[in-house]
Amino acid sequence: MRKQNGNNPLQDRGRSVAEIRLQDVFQQVYLGLFIFARCPDGPRPSTVRPCQLPCKKDCIMTPFSNWTACPVICDPAGNAVKSKQSRKRLIIQLPSNGGQDCPEVLEEERDCEIPKICPGFRWKTHKWRKCQLVPWFLRKEHPGAQETCGPGLQTRAVSCRQLDGTQADVSECLKFGKAMPAITQRCQLPCQDDCQLNNWSKFSSCTADCVGVRTRKRALIGRSKKKDKCKNTQMYPLSETQYCPCDKYNAQPVGNWSDCILPEGGRVESILGMKVQGDIKECGQGYRYQAMVCYDQDNRLVETLRCNSHGYIEEACIIPCPSDCKLSEWSNWSRCSKSCGSGVKVRSKWLREKPYNGGRPCPKLDHINQVYEVVPCQSDCNQYVWVAEPWSVWKVSNVDLKENCGEGVQTRKVRCMLNTIDGPSESVEDYLCDPEEMPLGARESRLPCPEDCVLNDWGPWSRCSLLGLGSSSPLPPLTTLPAKPILLGLVIFQKTSERHSLEQLDHPCTRTNNRVRTAYTLRSPTVGRQCPDTTDREPCSLNLNCFNYFYNITDWSTCQLSPNAVCGSGIKTRMLDCVRSDGKSVDIKFCEELNLEKRWQMNISCVVECPVNCQLSEWSAWSDCSQTCGLEGKMWRQRSVVQASQGDGRPCPSQMEQWKPCPVRPCYRWKYSPWSECRVESVVCGHGIRYRNLSCFVSDGSGNGESSLVDEELCSSLELAIDGDKQINLKEACTLPCPVYFIRFEQEISLLI
């Protein structure tokens, strides 16, 4: 079949394409699977379908952005702080189907270059506006006031600039600059008798930017032309000159800040409102200064006026005021430390505020920050007395019922009372009375029976002999004597002196001596009974019922001044105290009855040093600048101590000298230029002459050798000398070496064969 149909193109042409393709399929399937003609009739499966072959997609990135601006950050000391700048890029398309991946780095950072000087900010002041008179209703009350002239006010604008002159926001100057300059000032509209001048003319034009000076003028007008006072050009200048303005100059601070300097001539008043010689103002608001340096567009040092600067940055500063030691007022005097004899009373002040910043120091304080004043006092030993009420009715505990008598108890109330001329007046605390002398508040006794002898209460004990310690008087035991000397009567005794002789003295308080008390018979006993003994004796025992007496001297008081005085002459006092041999202070009468001799001085004069504040001289005039030019010049001023502090006076401050920077001035000097090449005439080598020029150079005087060439006019005021050598040499002989020629001979050698 294939052979018949396949070889006849005419027959093939009559068949459809589908038939031909079907025949091809049949032929392929027939080879190994099945014969197509045997498939059932019906829908034939599709042998072709569309599909999508995915494409690769690479990562797509934007280019890096520009580097961010470097922030300029300054620390409080004015030094630049290291910072960074960065740049970024973004992913536009992520990779897919095996495309190229995105890089990991999307942001880069790098260190910024640290500026040599932090940018500062300064206030720029503009011209004062026309003077405006103060309203007439405010001025008319003043003598001599005129309606069309007199005091007024004028205003001006201020703006903020960086130190290089560029405009800045006002907030920068308020935050980082010094105090804003005044925007108003007093002015005077001249009256007929005042010197009158016309307004300033405009400044003359400058020939070129940043070159030369410009001037402006004004003139006297009217009658002022004939007045001598108006012809004083210092008070009324008629011309003004300044450097031509230039935006190409750059101002920068240089060097350290000066000391904080107070306005000159300032004084403070003393507490009493009177000015005290030498009491110089030492604190408050002052100013410190930092030099300004001005560079031109070629980074050459020029006069600071080119940068419209007076040569300094000025900054307000504070010198803290000294604060003196502050104490409270004196407290009330305490009660005398002893209720009998000599004691002390005390008053005190306590610390309220410590001194600081060189204030007046405190007096010597104790561990709880108090200062005391102690004076001796004498207390009357009889000012407080024990007062006993009558005994109560007997309370019989063991009663003879038949006779209604026997053992019993009586009580009474005992109180300590203040003793006055009129007798005891009021009750006080018991501790003010001597506890050893306190009467009994209760007693046991026997209520007498009718047949008993009745006696009254015992009378007081008789006194043992009163003896004072003198040259022939007995002494208390040596163990009761203090280690330091005590003045006793006529003799000064110490613990170990005359030990044997003292022990041999006759002593009255021995058991061989007695004291006595008696009672009286109130009712005689019945027959067969006797009254008890009406006399009672007991031996005189030292420091029990028998005592010796001697004087004791108190310590000196502090120096006592008159009531309103705080220093000067005063008196120290001390007191005599009568002391019993057991160490108890008793009424002075016990010693006075013995007629003991008093040899002690009771008062001496003393002096309390008056506080004197340190007084200083006025500041001297500022010294000449330490350098005539350059960056490091300084001026100094000194003062000295006129009166050193005394007592608790305010001490002298430590700062006896101050400095501030000098205005920076360029250092100009003559220098040789390099030698020219050696020049010879008419020949090409041999002896010749070389030349050099004399040029003007400027430097900052720091000695690092860097200098810049400037116009010779700037050195015109200098002596023509090089490093002090006035002999100028601008040419010298030289030798130009002749050239050396080499002759090369070549020889051809022919080889004959």
Name the poorly predicted regions. 1-36, 266-280, 467-506, 745-753
Summed up, the helix count is 7
Distance between the termini: 94 Å
| Overall geometric form | elongated
Count of distinct strands: 48
- Return the average pLDDT rounded to an integer: 76
β-sheet strand percentage: 25-35%
Account of the 3D structure:
InterPro entries: Spondin/Thrombospondin_T1 (IPR051418), TSP1_rpt (IPR000884), TSP1_rpt_sf (IPR036383), TSP1_spondin_dom (IPR044004). It is a single chain. With about 750 residues, the chain is mainly β. Among the domains are: about 65-110, no CATH class; about 120-190, no CATH class; about 325-380, TSP-1 type 1 repeat (Single Sheet); about 385-450, no CATH class; about 550-595, no CATH class; about 665-735, no CATH class. About 5% of the residues lie in helices and about 30% in strands. The strands form 19 sheets. Strands 15, 16, 17 and 18 form a 4-stranded antiparallel β-sheet that branches. Strands 29-35-37-38 form a 4-stranded mixed β-sheet. A hairpin with a 2-residue loop joins β30 and β31. The longest helix has 14 residues, at about 15-30. It is elongated, with a radius of gyration of 60 Å.
